[in-house]
Amino acid sequence: MKFAVFTDSTPEWAPEEAAKILAEQGWHGIEWRITDPVESSRPTFWAGNRATWPLTGLESHLDDIRSVTQSAGLAMPALGGYVTPRQREDAERMLAAAAALDAGQVRFLGVNTEKGQSYREAFAAYRADWEWLEGRARHHGVRALLELHHESLTASASAARRLVEGLDPRYVGVLHDIGNTVIEGWEEPAHAFDLLGEYLAHVHVKNVAFHLSGVQNDGTLRWEPKWVPLREGRADLPEFFKALAGAGYDGWVTVEDFSVALPLAERTAANLEYLTGLARAAGYDLG
Q: Is the pLDDT of residue 287 over 90?
């Protein structure tokens, strides 16, 4: 098992700084955030994030991405894209970049129903998108990742398996994100991994807790999810790692911690120490 950080969770660091600090802390890899920047007066996770490579003109940045990553001695377990399979030109760009960088995998965003569309109609259209994407991933020799994500057609392992069933797992896989499934799509991890089987291709880790956000006039309590440190949320990460071990998963685990209780460098260092301990306790031999 190897550990990486997704740079959507390191907004304060420029790429060179992110790679240098993560390598010095002992991380094995870095999963680059690739999307066109949104300006902000200060760096945040989703706007003004400095550890981001632009999607537009991505081809002209490949040498820089490779140089920054390799100079730090890091690997790229995947590219963190923000496009969907129906954005054909950009999907093609991401797959080609992964092939050129030897990243091997690309995360694609999920979709939800559109106005006036039923779930079944949306699901059928999305399946067609993934059939197209499988062909393009095969062409480039990389794998497209379907992320389990709340507020999408594939929030659960069950829905994801139904979507990708019959597609070639060499070129299509599922990215399990336990933090997202706490919000929507929760299934017992051991069951989820067994169900995904050969399609379980990548893992993201973050954690979330629900907080009281208000009370309606009739006394109904309203709860909202909030990203919290890995040790503090609803997801039972010790049991999660035991389930990964039980499923025979020995791939990458990438962290995207959106909590802000600790300064960024302290947060990433503490996360690596915690996850390394969890993996060893679950029976992984980390050398």
A: no
SS3 content of the chain, % helix, strand, coil (to 5): 40, 20, 40
pLDDT in tens, 110-148: 999 999 999 999 999 999 999 999 999 999 999 999 999
The set of residues, in sequence order, having a beta carbon less than 8 Å from that of 75 and lying 6+ positions away, is 2, 4, 28, 29, 30, 69
**Among 178, 187, 258, 186, CA closest to 226:** 258
Digit-coded pLDDT (tens) for 235-253: 999 999 999 999 999 999 9
pLDDT in tens, 151-195: 999 999 999 999 999 999 999 999 999 999 999 999 999 999 999
Report which of 184, 180, 190, 273 is spatially closest to residue 227, judged by C-alpha positions: 180
Spatial separation of the C-alpha atoms in residues 231 and 208, rounded to whole Å: 10
Q: Return phi, psi of residue 136, to 5°.
A: -75, -35
Angle at 92 between CA 91 and CA 93, to 5 degrees: 90
